[in-house]
C-alpha cells in the first residue's frame, strides 16, 4: 500500500496537508500554506509534512483511528509529551474515547515504564482539558 497521490514530492505535500487538515480540523486554512517561520530549523515542519503526514498518515492500510493508537503508544514510549498532547487531540478527532486513551496509557506503563505513563497521563489530561 502507498500514500494516496504520492507520486512526487508535491503530491506528498498535498497529501500531507489533506491529512493534517483532517486530523486537526480548523487549524490550517484552505489552499497552499507556508509553514516556515524564518527561524532556525524552519524546514522541519515541511519535512514532517511530507515524510510523516504525506508518506505515512495518508497511506492506506490502517485507519486514522488505528494510526492514532499506534502513534500514542510510540510517543508515550519516547517520552515525547509535546507531540503526545497534539496526538491526544488528533486521536479524539479520529474517534478515540477518553477511556481508550487511558487504556493506551495503562498498557504502555507495562512496556515503557511507569514514569513514561505518568508523564503521558499528565500530557493527555492537559490536552483534553483545553
TrEMBL record:
Segments crossing the lipid bilayer: none
InterPro entries (alphabetical): 4CMD/NDH-1_regulator, AhpD-like, CMD-like
Domain Carboxymuconolactone decarboxylase-like: 53-126
Recorded GO MF terms: peroxiredoxin activity
Pfam family, one: CMD
Protein name, entry field: Carboxymuconolactone decarboxylase
Lineage of origin: Bacteria, Bacillati, Actinomycetota, Actinomycetes, Kitasatosporales
Amino acid at each position: 500500500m502507498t500514500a494516496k497521490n504520492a507520486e512526487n514530492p508535491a503530491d506528498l505535500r498535498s497529501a500531507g496537508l489533506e491529512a493534517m487538515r483532517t486530523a486537526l480540523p480548523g487549524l490550517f486554512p484552505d489552499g497552499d500554506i507556508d509553514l516556515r517561520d524564518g527561524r532556525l530549523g524552519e524546514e522541519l515542519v515541511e519535512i514532517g509534512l511530507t515524510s510523516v503526514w504525506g508518506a505515512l498518515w495518508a497511506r492506506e492500510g490502517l485507519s486514522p483511528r488505528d494510526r492514532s493508537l499506534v502513534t500514542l503508544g510510540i510517543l508515550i514510549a519516547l517520552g515525547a509529551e509535546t507531540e503526545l498532547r497534539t496526538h491526544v487531540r488528533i486521536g479524539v478527532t479520529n474517534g478515540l474515547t477518553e477511556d481508550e486513551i487511558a487504556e493506551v496509557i495503562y498498557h504502555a506503563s507495562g512496556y515503557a515504564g511507569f514514569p513514561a505513563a505518568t508523564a503521558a497521563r499528565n500530557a493527555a489530561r492537559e490536552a483534553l482539558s483545553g
